[in-house]
């Protein structure tokens, strides 16, 4: 068993192996659809029914658990023969999972939720494991950075962080006065990056726009126009002047620093502390047909997540070397290390400690909390992707249909029984995190009260409001 530091263990709620198994059994069957429930954890023992798997990923640092599970032999330990295939963009990856060309994938947390709701593409997908916490940032072009940096509050001769989007508002207003659009990039309409960028902008008094029914642009009433760009193409797109900034995962913010074309101004951990990022996404019917395969897949990835966070990041340099290979992320090791080894570079000469920028195992990073799913749903409603009001119970029911902690617990507790991971690495929870105000705007999020949370925003849809071609209507 890989050692976990005492400090890391103290951050976890202790629980025994038997309690963990009891929680797994209590949660068994949560979130099953009317068409057919995913197999209960009790049916997940035995050899994998489908040992040969093809998993998709996008070239980002947070695909690391998949690469490590392959390179360190964790897939093989679980009886799986896995091929990892990079995908051109998030739409291609999603279509691959839905169409069966991919068995599962490194997926945006919002994708299985949106697909289940029928936003964009209708499909019954589930997320039985969270791959990581944090890992994104917002970068501005040098031109825009030069417009705001002299007015930023300073601390120790460097800009004070987190930097509010309020600093960007005069620039956006100037663009509007000149009749020019202010353009920023994100990676997909239901990506964490879209919602984090929108959250940051709105917290600074900038409206990122609303989605009308059937619209994937989301620019109704926007002060800033947000558009989709695949992650590896972000730096080149900004350098060409097509966008003035972007929100993306690593290493593509550090790539802008290395190329001298942009400056990261805020990390997603500064927008929402320990926010959930990617998930393992797969079809519900795949998990139902191959329960032992699904359990083995989750176990292998949990082992890789533990390896990535073990011993205060002692394995991160090796992880950087692995990820730098062309068949994985394919970025320069120095660029990858600039964010993945406990630090984050905002601009040359401004590298700061960031031990939690990428979290894969600690702080229960792998557990798929219902409250995490509900947060994404609140943002979909806030910006019009969910067109109408729903009661709080609808948000909970939708989250339970897609996020599957029962499957996670079945896999994790088998690892506990085998002494492959410590018992207190598995949370004792009803699936909801405690309310938190660790957001850049200081607002409190309680996953049990989604409508109250939506109502707390000064910018965003309110109860009774809808977005039409002529604007926002309703009370």
TrEMBL record:
Keywords carried by this UniProt record: Cell inner membrane, Cell membrane, Membrane, Transport
Family annotation (SUPFAM superfamilies): Periplasmic binding protein-like II
InterPro entries in UniProt: NrtA/CpmA_ABC-bd_dom, TAT_signal
Predominant place of localization: membrane
Annotated localization: Endomembrane system
Protein family: Belongs to the CmpA/NrtA family.
Protein name: CmpA/NrtA family ABC transporter substrate-binding protein
């Amino acid at each position: 068993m890989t050692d976990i530091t005492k400090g890391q263990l103290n951050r976890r709620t202790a629980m025994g192996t038997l309690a963990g198994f009891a929680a797994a059994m209590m949660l068994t069957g949560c979130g099953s659809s009317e068409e057919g429930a995913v197999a209960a954890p009790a049916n997940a023992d035995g050899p994998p029914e489908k040992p040969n798997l093809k998993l998709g990923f996008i070239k980002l640092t947070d695909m690391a658990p998949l690469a490590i599970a392959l390179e360190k032999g964790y897939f093989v330990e679980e009886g799986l023969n896995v091929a990892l295939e990079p995908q051109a963009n998030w739409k291609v990856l999603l279509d691959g999972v839905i169409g069966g060309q991919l068995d599962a994938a490194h997926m945006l947390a919002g994708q299985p939720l949106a697909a289940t709701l029928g936003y964009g593409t209708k499909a019954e997908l589930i997320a039985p494991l969270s791959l990581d916490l944090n890992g994104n940032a917002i970068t501005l072009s040098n031109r825009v950075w030069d417009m705001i940096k002299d007015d930023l509050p300073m601390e120790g001769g460097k800009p004070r962080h987190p930097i509010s989007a309020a600093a960007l508002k005069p620039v956006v207003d100037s663009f509007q006065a000149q009749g020019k659009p202010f353009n920023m990039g994100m990676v997909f309409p239901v990506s964490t990056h879209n919602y984090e960028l929108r959250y940051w902008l709105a917290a600074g008094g900038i409206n990122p726009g609303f989605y009308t029914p059937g619209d994937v642009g989301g620019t109704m009433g926007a002060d800033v126009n947000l558009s989709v760009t695949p992650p590896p193409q972000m730096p080149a797109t900004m350098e060409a002047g097509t966008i003035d900034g972007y929100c993306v995962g690593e290493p593509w913010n550090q790539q802008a620093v290395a190329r001298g074309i942009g400056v990261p101004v805020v990390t997603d951990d500064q927008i929402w502390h320990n926010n959930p990022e990617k998930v393992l996404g797969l079809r519900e019917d795949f998990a139902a047909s191959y329960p032992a395969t699904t359990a083995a897949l989750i176990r292998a990835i949990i082992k890789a997540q533990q390896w990535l966070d073990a011993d205060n990041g002692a394995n991160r340099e090796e992880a950087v070397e692995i990820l730098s290979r062309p068949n994985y992320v394919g970025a320069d090791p120095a660029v990858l290390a600039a964010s993945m080894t406990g630090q984050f570079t905002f601009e040359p000469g401004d590298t700061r400690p960031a031990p939690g920028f990428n979290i894969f195992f600690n702080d229960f990073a792998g557990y798929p909390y219902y409250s995490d799913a509900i947060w994404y749903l609140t943002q979909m409603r806030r910006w019009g992707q969910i067109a109408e009001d729903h009661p709080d119970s609808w948000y909970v029911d939708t989250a339970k249909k897609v996020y599957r902690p029962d499957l996670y617990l079945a896999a994790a507790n088998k690892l506990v029984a085998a002494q492959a991971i410590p018992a207190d690495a598995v949370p004792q929870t009803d699936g909801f995190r405690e309310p938190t105000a660790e957001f850049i705007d200081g607002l409190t999020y309680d996953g049990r009260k989604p409508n109250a949370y939506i109502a707390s925003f000064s910018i965003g849809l309110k109860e009774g409001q809808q977005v039409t071609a002529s604007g926002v209507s309703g009370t």
